[in-house]
Amino acid sequence: MMNSENEGSCRYNFDEIYETYWSRIHRYVERMIGSHEAEDLTQEIFIKVGNTVESFRNEAQLSTWIYKIATNTVIDRMRKSGYKQETNKTTLLNNMNIENDKVEISKTSGLGRKVSAVEGQVINKEMNSCIRGIVDSLPEKYRTVLVLNEMEGLKNREIAEVLGITLEAVKIRIHRAKAYLKNELVNQCDFYWDERNEMACDRKKPKNI
């Protein structure tokens, strides 16, 4: 991927970078904003990578540098007027360690009834919609650290470099993001296990005032 040019600098082959990181960055972008703009935005990211790769001097890992460009590009898009968050098919809940004692789950629904196979399909669909809506509603800074940490597998120090914040700030954001998500799940969803022993949930109904 690289050839020594002179001491302290390296030349990177853009075609190899593109081939190595395209699918990974596309997946990251899709997780952040959905599939509707992922292709175009990933292309924009790699145009930026291609235009600036000559200035990269190994002050960080190549992957971290690319994630930084990708994150800045995604956040810029999210902050533009007219942007609308698309509901993602992939949820953070499937990748996070959300302890069962934090999200109350019983073996039956609130009415103590078994869940039929047909009803279970409807409820599982609602569960995905419920959880995705909560994840998508997370404040930008919390959603970003959760995706980078829980789904992309970046270490805290790498996330700090990507976001340009301190390591301590990363730890605080991850802690607060998980606490926020758990709290919203408890407040908005009733979890239980269906007859297939798969986790499902009902959206809680508003309390009558």
Number of domains: 2
Q: Which strand order spans the largest sheet, edge to edge or round the barrel? A: 3-4-5
Characterize the main sheet.
3 strands, mixed
Mean pLDDT: 77
Order of helices and strands: EEHHHEHHHHEE
Structural class: mainly alpha
| CATH architecture grouping of the largest domain | Orthogonal Bundle
Give me the oligomer status.
single chain
Unreliable spans: 1-9, 87-91, 98-114
Quickly count the helices. 7
In whole angstroms, how far apart are the ends?
A: 64 Å
Could you name the CATH homologous superfamily of the largest domain?
A: Winged helix-like DNA-binding domain superfamily/Winged helix DNA-binding domain
The CATH class of the largest domain is Mainly Alpha
Q: How much strand content do the residues show? A: 5-15%
What percent of the residues sit in helical stretches (DSSP H or I)? 55-70%
CATH fold description of the largest domain:
Arc Repressor Mutant, subunit A
Overall geometry comes to: elongated
Number of strands: 5
Compute the CA-based radius of gyration.
20 Å
Architecture overview:
The protein is mainly alpha-helical. The protein folds into two domains: 2-79, RNA polymerase sigma factor, region 2, helix turn helix motif (Rna Polymerase Sigma Factor, Chain: A, Orthogonal Bundle); 92-203, Winged helix-like DNA-binding domain superfamily/Winged helix DNA-binding domain (Arc Repressor Mutant, subunit A, Orthogonal Bundle), CATH 1.10.10. It contains seven helices and five strands. The strands form two sheets. The protein has a three-stranded mixed beta sheet. A two-stranded antiparallel sheet has the order 1-2. The chain is elongated and about 60 Å long. Mean pLDDT is 77; it is low at 1-9, 87-91 and 98-114.
